[in-house]
Amino acid sequence: MTNLLILGGTYQARECAQTLLTHGFTVTSSLAGRVAEPRLPAGEVRIGGFGGPTGMAQWLHENRIAAVVDATHPFAERIGPSAVTACGSAGVPLVRLYRPGWQPEAGDRWHWVESLDAAARVTARLADRAFVTTGRQGLGAFTVLTRTWLLIRCVDSPAPPLPPHHRVILSRGPYEVADERALMLRHDIDALVTKDSGGSLTRGKLTAARELGLPVVIVSRPQRPETPSVASTAEAVQWITDHVSGGS
Known about the structure:
By secondary structure, this protein is α/β, with parallel strands linked by helices. The chain has helices at residues 11-22, 52-62, 79-90, 116-126, 177-186, 204-212, 233-243; strands at 3-7, 26-31, 44-47, 65-70, 94-97, 109-113, 129-133, 149-154, 166-170, 191-195, 215-219, 229-230. Strand 10, helix 6 and strand 11 (215-219) form a beta-alpha-beta unit.
């Protein structure tokens, strides 16, 4: 059997694990452990860090990993460089399975920013009541918003510091456009704040904001190291079969 490692935590990672298993590969998915009750993929699962690039390289060697698929979230900034270094050191092929970023459509009022700090500054100018969907980490950047009320949605409860005027709702996607629109209307939202996560599971909020004529503050993706990349599970499977043997 050919052993593969998927750096996961996304729905693309779960889909990829299932598909590679059906092609006869042995798959281990690695999750960061930042979500209390993650959705687990098929196959073997490990949770937690590797101890940096050196620890990951050692793990790859000890587990006879033939190739690695980095299917982590676009904003998982640390794992990408670590995987590149570890795979280079261990001599293991690495491919990045990424989800394309969102593209504005006619009627969108998007404000691109480079960081959560910048998002907070723009939000202060645009909104009295903003809907924040940037995740539970980094919310301290919004503590400077002393006059703006924030509706914060995340999967798990965020840790302080939190903005002075807010309400937290715990929820996990996917989200329908009609539900997102109703949520924004119910809370009198006048701006949406999000990250360019891409994909279809959470795009409904962007459509709802466009229909309501609301501005959207979007944090751009961080730069990732240059890595062979594919945009779909089918392409990932093809890349794996081209670079390793053992699948059917």
